């Protein structure tokens, strides 16, 4: 009976893999056969009208936080869900990486690097609409700080400096703040997560305070991603 169950599990796994492969092949085929004009229309619109409509010089950011902000919300939700499951639902017996010993060079290098990582992360977040960067990238850089502390000094030290409850609170603030900013578009009579379309005003293009809601959305995503990735990392390296 156990052998039959094992075979059924293997067949179930194989069936899922085959179904996923077929689905991906269909998606790739449909994308490949899209009309060339329809594929170029959106990219041409973003390039020619992006700065005027959103006020963001960084067109990647204008797409992520204006034209396709729903996608960004979905990606942030994935991180939020993963962090919540790992930190709340998975029991932990003890933490690994506590006995690792490094040389004094590693410890000093970590201390030396942290201020630079903090400045770089904050710069990427606040200037993401003006230069390469943005909330996601800045959040990833900021998450390296607690991850470095964990790797170098251990989980207990890292979590004594940056409490898990505080990281979870920061992540929640980022997620809720992003949604509340999105609702401002509805309040103004436009759509959820609308920016240029809701007439928030792009300001003077090229200045720090410009591009409507995009800088504030960058901040919310930055703190949310930074805290979320730090939570996920510490949860994954703990023995269950």
Write a short abstract of this structure.
It contains 9 helices and 2 strands. The protein is mostly helical and 240 residues long.
Your description of this structure?
- Belongs to the CPA3 antiporters (TC 2.A.63) subunit B family.
- Residues 14-88 form the MrpA C-terminal/MbhE domain.
- It holds the Pfam family MnhB.
- The chain starts with a helix and ends with a strand.
- The protein has helices at residues 2-32, 36-54, 59-67, 69-89, 104-126, 135-153, 155-161, 164-187, 214-236, and strands at 94-95, 238-239.
- It has 240 residues and is mainly α.
- It has one domain (34-239).
Could you tell me the number of beta strands?
2
Share of β-strand residues: under 5%
Structural class: mainly alpha
Q: What is the H/E string?
A: HHHHEHHHHHE
The helix content is over 70%
As residue ranges, the low-confidence spans are none
Overall residue-averaged pLDDT value:
83
Strand order of the largest sheet: 1-2
Given the structure, what is the number of helices? 9
Number of domains: 1
The Cα radius of gyration reads 22 Å
Span of the ends, CA to CA: 30 Å
Largest sheet: 2 strands, antiparallel
Global outline: globular
